[in-house]
C-alpha cells in the first residue's frame, strides 16, 4: 500500500474524493477487473482475448450481480458458459482502442 494512503482518514468523503481522481478511478477499475479475473478465470480461459475483455468489462459495469446470475446458471447447468453483456460494445471497438493506445507511445 502506498505510504500516502496511511496519511488519509479514509472516511466516505476521502474515498469519494480519491475515486474522483484519475488515479483513484484507475485503481478501482484495476481492482474490479482483478476480481472479475479471479471469478471468471476458468470460465473464460478458452475464450478469445476479445471475448474475455467483454466479460471483464461487463463485470466492471454490472458488478457482483453479473457473477451471481452466471453462478446460478452454473448451478442449474454445470456446462453453462458465460455470455458477455454490455462489455461486447468494447469488443466491437477493440481495434480502435488498441490503435489509439499504440499511437500514444
Can you characterise this structure?
By secondary structure, the protein is mostly helical. It has one domain (9-103). Helices cover 73% and strands 0% of the residues. It contains seven helices and no strands. The protein has helices at residues 3-6, 12-19, 22-44, 49-62, 64-76, 88-92, 94-103. Helix 3 crosses helix 4. The longest helix is centred in the first third of the chain and has 23 residues, at 22-44. The chain is flat, with a radius of gyration of 17 Å. It starts with a helix and ends with a helix. The mean pLDDT is 88.
Descriptive tags:
105 residues; mainly alpha; 7 helices; flat
Task: List the topology elements.
Layout: H1 3-6, H2 12-19, H3 22-44, H4 49-62, H5 64-76, H6 88-92, H7 94-103
Computed structural class: mainly alpha
Q: Taking all residues together, what is the mean pLDDT? A: 88
Count of individual domains:
1
Tell me the distance between the termini.
28 Å
Low-confidence stretches: none
Count of beta strands: 0
Helix count, per DSSP?
7
Q: What is shown here, in short?
A:
The chain has one domain (9-103). Helices cover 73% and strands 0% of the residues.
